[in-house]
Write a structure and sequence with these properties.
Length: 210
């Protein structure tokens, strides 16, 4: 014991805990890893279900373009790129050389199929015979023929075989035009190409001709 007077530092509590600068530092606790692993497993399972199962059940992504069926039955995409819609291909527009320059000309086959019109030669003489019992019929018809522009060769009664109808006989294709024109003028439709007569064209009036 010293002889110095007691001070405040001499008062030490009996139940005081140990104190000092060297304290026992507790080690920091490590975070638990099982919640992280559990969340990772759940996320992986959800991703597998969404990738494998949902497409088989008919669930499609809302962002994918849907096919559109047009009126002609073909399929087209719901959206098209601006480049394909903004302009049409240049080849679809008709070029000036594609327009017809003139009206179509008739083909050679059509020209060949068209009936040829025989030429009328009013220098050819015409004979008129009356094959009926009507008197003066040949003279009257001969006047019509002469008025149509043809010269006359013989005007008489018919002395050959009886005729069943009125006919116009012509000699060869060169006189066909005259026979057609005379038949139209006299109202006779029976035209006969014959070499029995010396005259180019012969008109024989048959029964019933007026």
């Amino acid at each position: 014991m010293t002889k110095f007077a007691r001070d405040e530092f001499d008062r030490v509590p009996q139940s005081s805990s140990r104190q000092g600068v060297h304290r026992l530092v507790a080690s920091a606790s490590r975070p638990a890893l099982w919640p992280v692993l559990l969340l990772g497993g759940v996320a992986l399972a959800v991703g597998l279900v969404a990738f494998l199962v949902l497409p088989k059940l008919g669930f499609a992504s809302s962002t994918s373009p849907q096919a559109v069926v047009t009126a002609d039955g073909s399929k087209q995409g719901a959206t098209a790129s601006p480049s394909t819609n903004s302009s049409a291909p240049a080849s679809s527009q008709p070029s000036p050389g594609d327009t017809p320059s003139s009206a179509p000309t008739p083909s050679a086959a059509a020209t060949a199929a068209a009936p040829s019109v025989a030429a009328v030669d009013k220098t050819a003489v015409v004979a008129v015979y009356n094959g009926t019992t009507t008197g003066g019929l040949a003279a009257r018809v001969a006047g019509i023929v002469q008025g149509g522009g043809w010269p006359l060769s013989t005007v008489a009664n018919w002395g050959g075989l009886p005729q069943q109808t009125s006919s116009v006989f012509y000699k060869g294709a060169a006189q066909k035009g005259n026979a057609e024109a005379l038949g139209k003028l006299l109202g006779i439709s029976n035209l006969v190409d014959s070499a029995e007569f010396q005259q180019p064209v012969v008109v024989i009036l048959g029964p019933g001709y007026k």
